[in-house]
Design brief:
The complex is a heterotetramer, with two copies of chain A and two copies of chain B. By secondary structure, chain A is an alpha/beta fold. Chain A has two domains: 2-185, 3-Layer(aba) Sandwich (Rossmann fold); 198-324, 3-Layer(aba) Sandwich (Rossmann fold). Chain A has helices spanning 6-20, 46-50, 62-74, 89-100, 103-106, 136-140, 153-165, 214-227, 245-255, 270-281, 304-310, 314-324; strands at 2-5, 24-28, 55-57, 78-85, 116-121, 146-148, 170-175, 182-185, 198-201, 206-210, 232-236, 239-241, 258-265, 291-295. Chain B starts with 7 loop residues before the first helix and ends in a 20-residue tail after the last helix. In chain B, strands 2-1-3-4-8-7 form a six-stranded parallel sheet, sandwiched between helices. In chain B, 59% of the residues are buried. Chain B has one domain (8-308): 3-Layer(aba) Sandwich (Rossmann fold), CATH 3.40.50.970. Chain B is globular and about 50 Å long. Chain B has eleven helices and eight strands. In chain B, helix 2 packs parallel to helix 8. By secondary structure, chain B is of the alpha/beta class. Classes of the chains: A alpha/beta, B alpha/beta. Chains A and B meet through helix 3, helix 4 and helix 5 of A and helix 5 and helix 6 of B. The complex binds thiamine diphosphate (2 copies) and magnesium ion (2 copies).
Chain lengths: 327, 328, 327, 328
């Protein structure tokens, strides 16, 4: 166990995967030679260590990068490709949604696609809406694709390793706003199972479900909620598909309340699924309205003032929790 | 191009494959005319048999094929099981993909017919990955991808050519230029008359061939496959041919000049080749007849097999989405 | 007022738009010369009537078709483009999501994009998941885009005309399964306002919100529900963005129950937003769990047997309504 | 190419525009070194000033420009207001786009700088629509789109060339080949050394030019713009130049051979042109100095203007998504 940043943890996962399985290869724009010589880059040093055969810099061709992964995985490789920023996933979406996610079903189960797509997400680095647009809800609505979103360096490593060795296509979201955060990371080939949420803190009055950087916004809110004598159970999903429904339902059946928090746009966001699922399957347990905290239905703005308004803050979480209590 | 005389056995095989494809597809066309008989959209390649038979016959077993919506000929030339193929086209449970592919998405990984996509232009991207895997593994196989003149307008084809060109992948692009993309003629959707020339912009040798001449396709296919196999990188073949039956079986082709159809009917790849083989003494009338009868018998049997197979049942409805379905 | 099919109604809308505004033009694959010489095709006869300058057949290039619309609309035209089937919208999604939807915001309001995208949706024509994949939830989660989904020939005409003359980008979904249905269609330049739902039938026990072909599944279920003495209020959304929240909330406040029905995949589908919204904003009025009827999280299958299982049927609606009543 | 001697006023203008761009961008680079001073990613075009100044100066006011992430030179050559431009780059409320574009998405529709996208390869598709609108309206304007050598790998560029080629749109593609796409050198991301030759595959004349020679760019720009304007269809210019400061201001360029940088520094488009103009007697040292001083003064004023402008306030946060916001 040692302290690592998010980037270092991801780097460790990639290194281990490349070491233990000859079928693992890495491709993407700048995954080998990068404009950032930064040990916090998940792909830092991989080219030097594993060479040009296994670490492939690509042209600026997102559709080709995704196609490469689909075709190569169907031939038995375990490609790990990078789509630089979440909004660029649009350019790869035919390959991912109509091919990676569907071809196995249509093959009648004879083909499989053990590929991993790493993609950077997050709001708050001032590049605006063509670089920032959290689209996890799109992926989750696409059958045949799995998606995980780690919020700690340990899970970053564990989920990425699980994704790479999963027999199905998995999208691994890397939250840019967590890149330099550090935490304890166990050594070796550790795997965080897909589909298992993590209870970050236990509580009795309200369940808060979140993932990614939003977890830390929630944690900030806990103090102020605690001051008011409100005890919250915080669930970090880690994996959106497959979804750990049981963890959520069990908690809500206990607390009777649910707040969902993410940085994506609220309207039709992933939180809508969580809220709807609970309103359907744990209705009887609910003591108050289900509240969703997320961004307004506008593009991610560029100005620091606007970015701050766009991103849910701890006060929004507090308001939502109070809202579930009719306060 | 190597212009050597082909072995008579091979010539017979080429002819037989074309006849089988034609017979198979004419049967499908016939079934389509029975209301409610064939589900989904049926898209046939009548007139294009020489491209499929010629190109696929030039491949080695380890070579991978990626196909598109007009795939029957590619599959049949590769030796796909007629019964299971017809059953799949009828979307039956005993089809090659258990009734989950239908006519548009047929794949037979055992024969290295790896994937078929009906998203126009997707094939070349899938092929990129397959060819990359071959290169990565040091396999002697190459990947061949079939796509249309219409597909050549999709950005995906360009991305595939560029990346294959940079990485020198063993990828043979085969553009079946059948003069039409849906109801749009070549001049309306393509800014060049010579699609193969675009390959030069990616440091890829581009060649064109009479797609109705099965031996020409075979010879060029052999040559370009050898080029790819030798590690020199990708190659590009444009096969000039014609789509005789319209885009799909619902297409009355009323936008096509009947004279154009007549002109191309006169260039029928099967009749042309038959005359050549008769003239060269490779086959005689009796043998020809038996090839056609054989094909008819096998196709009838396939239809009977398909008819006898039930539609897939509820047990496979939810399966095959994931290899490892969510445990939670 | 006369009887028209869906296709004829759409055709009438396009004809009127082309007639009254020189800036309206049509583009797409086969919108001029088509493989179907069928008066039920929305674009039937337009080329003959308006000529090649205004009715443009394009290459098979979805990104270019969408880019054409974005660029031309920014120059003051009102392009109406077609993306043949919903799954192909992936190929146009960078242009639609990252450009049509965002460039106005980033211009600070100096640019606008009065474009319309027509797209065919629906499940049940046997072509499988690369032709059938209802992605309205994707569009709804993309800021700056509006989306409508008519369920009657009259609304098909009225919504398409409103979309074309709306100053913002609008996606108009044409439900393939309704193509040959006919109904009364008023003559002339009629406009169905965006953002106004239609109460199809009033009732007291449960609100059913739906859109598109699913409406008819709901209507089929009404008889059987009526037989059981259950009175349902049916709301046809017509417009998903902007959403007529008030119509939904008012109805749920009256009935105390909500069932959402669509043909898209349930998981992260548009219905999740509706259910979540009601669980948040009308919680106190709810007498039972919110139920969602939709497809399972798998690709649209090809076999007729499987297609039937995939598509929600009247019995699913009945079960859901009973479910809201604890039955 | 027309090789006539340019008018001295024009020569002065070309020089002045390059100097203004260089001064403006060096100031931004300087501000970037003050921690926390410049929000977002700053991407500069030092070394490429001749392409922007030469090409944009060859345009008419009705011509439309579509730009990319390396846009400052295009905007400045077009005469965008320095103060409002700098304020926008600082993401301030008095910026050209009210602080909602930032440095990467600048647009000034009043000057027909219609749109700027930072999605690599998007520009050519947007340009397709703009050029179509010009053709549709019978305008005499043309559309010019700037994109990089890296962008040339995106499928979008191919789709744009094909459709522009089929419809003969008045669209001038300008590929600024600055030898790099991020940290990937041309050979690593592009399957050809001569991107302009791809244009032939779309029936589009493709030409290459020394992108560090402002007069050469101007002359070829004029010629190709005239071609597009005449209704003959699209044209393609590849301008060979070099990105002197790395991909963005956070890029230490440690992957670049310092000798390569030196070689290109010696080809500085501004110094080279200054020597030419001095030699030709178009400008003397005093005039040169005053041009540089003027630029410095204007840039300082712009920074002061930007500094004085507040960040956009809450009132514009939700606005401008729709022209007609939902009433419900
Ligand atoms: C991305 C996409 N766009 C549109 C279609 C609809 N479509 C199916 S086949 C076809 C024409 C393709 O023409 P071509 O590539 O020449 O192949 P051909 O049908 O002539 O064999 C079109 C437009 C599709 N399947 N996929
Ligand atoms: C679709 C997309 N992919 C990746 C990026 C990240 N990116 C920004 S600029 C750039 C390199 C572009 O190279 P080139 O087109 O040559 O332009 P240059 O930066 O050299 O001016 C990349 C990869 C992006 N902005 N958009
Ligand atoms: Mg064709
Ligand atoms: Mg470059």
């Amino acid at each position: 166990m040692s302290q690592k940043t998010f980037g270092q943890a991801l780097n460790e996962a990639l290194t281990i995967a490349l070491e233990i399985d000859e079928n693992v290869c890495i491709a993407g724009e700048g995954v080998g030679v990068s404009i950032h010589r930064d040990p916090n880059m998940p792909t830092h040093g991989l080219l030097e260590k594993f060479g040009r055969r296994r670490v492939k810099d690509t042209p600026v061709s997102e559709a080709a990068i995704a196609g490469l992964a689909v075709g190569a995985s169907c031939m038995g490789l375990r490609p790990v490709v990078e789509i630089m920023f979440f909004p660029f996933i649009t350019l790869a979406s035919d390959m991912l949604v109509n091919h990676a996610g569907k071809l196995r079903y249509m093959s009648g189960g004879t083909s499989s696609f053990p590929l991993t797509v790493r993609v950077k997400a997050g709001v708050g680095f001032g590049a605006g809406c063509q670089h920032s647009h959290n689209l996890e809800a799109w992926v989750a609505h696409s059958p045949g694709l799995k998606i995980v979103w780690p919020s700690t360096p340990a899970d970053a490593k564990g989920l990425l390793l699980s994704a790479i060795f999963d027999p199905d296509p998995v999208i691994v979201v890397e939250d840019l706003m967590l890149g330099r955060m550090s935490g304890d990371v166990p050594a070796g080939d550790i795997r965080t199972p897909l589909g298992q949420a993590r209870i970050v803190s236990t509580g009795t009055d309200c369940t808060i479900v979140t993932y990614g950087a939003a977890l830390y916004t929630v944690m900030e809110a806990l103090t102020s909620l605690g001051d008011r004598g409100i005890s919250c159970e915080v669930i970090d999903l880690r994996s959106l598909v497959p979804l750990d429904k049981e963890a959520i339902l069990t908690s809500v059946r206990k607390t009777g309340r649910l707040v969902v928090v993410h940085e994506a746009i609220r309207f039709c966001g992933f939180g809508a699924e969580l809220a709807a699922m609970v309103a359907e399957e744990a209705f009887d347990a609910l003591k108050g309205p289900v509240k969703r905290v997320g961004a307004p239905q506008i593009p991610v703005p560029v100005a620091p003032t606007h970015e701050k308004m766009f991103k849910p803050g701890p006060e929004d979480v507090v308001t939502a929790v109070l809202g579930t209590m009719g306060k | 191009m190597i212009e050597h005389r082909l072995d008579p056995d091979l010539q017979t095989r080429l002819y037989t494959r074309m006849v089988l494809t034609r017979t198979f597809e004419e049967k499908i066309a016939e079934l389509c005319r029975e209301p409610g008989r064939m589900p989904g959209m049926q898209i046939l390649a009548n007139g294009q048999e020489a491209v499929a038979a010629g190109m696929v016959s030039a491949l080695e077993p380890e070579d991978v094929i990626i196909s598109n919506h007009r795939s029957h000929g590619h599959l049949l030339a590769r030796g796909a099981d007629l019964n299971a193929l017809m059953a799949e086209i009828m979307v039956k449970g005993q089809g090659v993909n258990g009734g989950k592919a239908g006519t548009l998405h047929l794949s037979v990984p055992d024969l290295n017919i790896l994937m078929t996509s009906t998203v126009v232009g997707a094939g070349p991207l899938l092929a990129l990955g397959a060819a990359f895997a071959q290169q990565y593994k040091g396999s002697s196989g190459i990947t061949v991808v079939f796509f249309g003149d219409g597909a050549a307008a999709e950005g995906s084809v360009h991305e595939a050519m560029n990346l294959a060109g940079v990485w020198k992948l063993p990828l043979l692009f085969v553009c079946e230029n059948n003069c039409w993309a849906g109801a749009q003629r070549l001049e309306e959707h393509c800014a060049t008359r010579h699609i193969f020339q675009r390959a030069n912009g990616y440091d890829i040798p581009g060649r064109s061939v009479d797609g109705n001449d099965v031996e020409a396709v075979y010879n060029l296919g052999l040559e370009l496959a050898a080029y790819c196999r030798s590690g020199k990188g990708p190659a590009f073949m444009e096969a000039l041919t014609y789509r005789m039956r319209g885009h799909g079986e619902q297409d009355p082709q009323d936008y096509v000049d009947p004279k154009e159809l007549e002109r191309w009917a006169a260039k029928c790849p099967i009749r042309g080749y038959r005359q050549k083989l008769l003239k060269e003494g490779v086959l005689d009338d009796v043998q020809i007849q038996s090839i056609h009868e054989d094909a008819a018998t096998r196709v009838e049997a396939a239809v009977a097999f398909g008819d006898a197979s039930p539609y897939p049942g509820p047990e496979t409805f939810l399966s095959d989405v994931f290899v490892q379905p969510p445990s939670v």
